[in-house]
Amino acid sequence: MKGKIGYLVVVIIVFLVGVLVGELAGGGLKKKDLVLSNGQSLEARLGDLEKKLDGMLNVGPGALRSDKAFQFNLEKTPVMGKSSAKVKIVLWSDFQCPYCKKMAEAMESLPKSDPGKYALYAKDLVVHPSAMLEHQAALAANAQGKYWEMHDLLFKNQAELAQISSDPGALKLKLADYAKQIGLNVEKFNADLEKDEFKAAIEADKKEAQAIPIDSTPTVFINGFFHGYDPEELKTKAVEAAEGAKSGGVETKLNSIDQKIDRVGQYFEKLKKAQGGGEPQGPQMGKEYKFNFENTPVIGKPGAKVKLTVFSDFLCPYCDKMALILEDMQKQSPDDVAIYFKHFLIHPTARLEHEAAMSASAQGKFKEMHDILFKNRQELSGIAQQGDDKLKEKIYSLAKEAGVNADKVKADLDSGKYKEQVAAAMKEGQEAGVRGTPSVFVNGYFYGYDPAALKLKVDEALKK
Q1: pLDDT digit string, tens, across residues 428-462
Q2: What is the domain-level CATH number for residue 388?
Q3: Nearest-angstrom CA–CA distance, 362 and 356
């Protein structure tokens, strides 16, 4: 309903702006018409309308205001271009974020074209914990004056680095190879890689982001102002700032409103697609998927009337929430609803947790291990950055706490007994079109990501 109302608002605004533009172009508006009956100028009224549109556009994570100039500490921040440049672009980014890679390419084009006019500042916001070492590597390269060379290599090899990020030893070797490629003193780079000062700098950036608040990447500010998430529009805003484009005047206001209407329209188009319209997102609606439940952990009675198949990741916060919602459904109909847990690792460092859950499942303790892993999700995410040995120690401790035989879990993890089963579940999800977690299927059918819609479908299936 909200989508329909919002879209109607856009249509009305488009109509009114169209009429106004037509009047201006045709000379239908006289000078007296530029002052409203309440004494307010048309320009001022358009400014109010633009602010309302800004409110509608602030729908992304953090709901950042576009009418406020934010201040940042840029003293030790890596910069491309001259610090004296008229236009300062501050980019908060994560090396494992695919959208950050695209945004970085777009923003870098500005200082590369004119370093005296544009300066790009790179701020660290580690959303993917497994990217932490990459951010430290960039700062270690910065210590030798090669930040942007390392920055570009990290983004260029994003997919490969994500795959090996669960193995700190392999990751360090790869980073050292990059250091050699860009002409760094490799011995110094390796020594600097885990310096406390670099970790502290990354943590300081994180705290600065949280205070604003910024909680997603990429997020860009141009001379302190937030202008949304579209790379092309951000480049346009940067060029306007460099050229000193006038902010006043009816025509300028109308052009600005027109651009923002386009953005609102794009937002509602995305919303419509997410709700089932347009091109399919993820698994197809209305198609029955067949899953192999032979080695799949189950919460509830196997063979229950309603089978909830959830593709999940123990380090995913949304999976944690969905697990509670699904378990509530199962508890309400314990004889007729069963939850089948499928592994789908968005976070590579969750691999050991998933294998441990399978080991617990073989002991008849899957739910106990499942619940304790989600309960300690944030702590496990942090420990994963310290290496597999530390992570295993924590997993064994949690296994004991959950009443699972920790020695058996240790033996299974050391032997990699369940590695192939976890990989097989991942492959099954990919073949079904799963692209993110949690993805839930009710008796083989995908109904989107809304828990209320899932509950409705479960109730319908119970009545059949």
Answers
A1: 998 998 877 889 999 999 988 778 889 999 999 99
A2: 3.40.30.10
A3: 10
